[in-house]
Design a protein that fits this description.
Helix content: 25-40%
Strand order of the largest sheet: 2-3-1-4
Structural class: alpha+beta
Order of helices and strands: HEHEEHEH
Shape: elongated
Largest sheet: 4 strands, antiparallel
């Protein structure tokens, strides 16, 4: 953005979040107290079930039974825990990636050509260029 500014090309930075994957967290719902959770944890560990008490968030005093990168293994684990006499639940956890876009203002677009993109690409490896339609132009239902 600084390089564009030095060339009198007006621009701004926009952060865009996108979900790149989903994990599946299998857990037992929170119990009434930490003491009850620790008792259930000992019971699970005595059965050789890998688990731990959740210590923060809205599931405090719940028991984590594992995080899976695919839904099928999470479902299989849930069935295994049901067969063992427990009532597990699953929560989807989205993994988010933050991308940063430098948006060239319309008045600077005439100065931003392939030659300039080539110069910038040599200075910033991995830089990509994408041309998008103008926002708010000819929006349906909007006449001014």
């Amino acid at each position: 953005m600084q390089r564009l500014l030095s060339l009198d090309v007006a621009s701004s930075v926009e952060q865009v979040e996108r979900i790149v994957a989903t994990d599946y967290w299998v857990y037992l719902p929170p119990l009434a107290s930490r003491q009850a959770s620790l008792h259930q944890l000992r019971e699970l560990q005595a059965k050789k079930i890998d688990s731990y008490v959740i210590t923060q968030g809205d599931l405090v005093n719940g028991i984590s039974l594992g995080v899976f990168s695919r839904a099928e293994p999470a479902k299989a684990a849930m069935q295994h825990f049901r067969d063992a006499g427990y009532e597990p639940m699953v929560r989807e956890l989205s993994r988010v990636r933050h991308d940063y876009w430098v948006k060239v203002a319309p008045e600077g677009a005439r100065l931003f050509d392939e030659r300039l993109m080539g110069i910038l690409a040599r200075s910033f490896p991995g830089l990509q260029h994408q041309q998008k339609e103008c926002e708010g132009v000819a929006s349906p239902g909007r006449l001014e």
